[in-house]
Fold this sequence. Notes:
Distance between the termini: 122 Å
Radius of gyration: 36 Å
Order of helices and strands: HH
Amino acid sequence: MANFIRNTQVKAMTSIWAAKQKARELADRTKEALVNREGQGTLDVAITVLISIVLGALILAGLYLIVDSTVLPTITQRIKDMFDYAG
Length: 87
């Protein structure tokens, strides 16, 4: 009976030690990931590209509005006048 209790205690202590070791390793990996700044440049480039795409889309939308409201009606009227030959 004493051997059984001793073996149970040893197994429990071993399990606790293994759990503590895994927790320490997880804490070390988390700390290393938080301190690591290697991906910072990639994030900056991604944000710059995203901003460029949004600004380009806004510029194209503005040009489309200008062409649609100013240039196209003028061209359409000139074409109608050109083919409206009454004799």
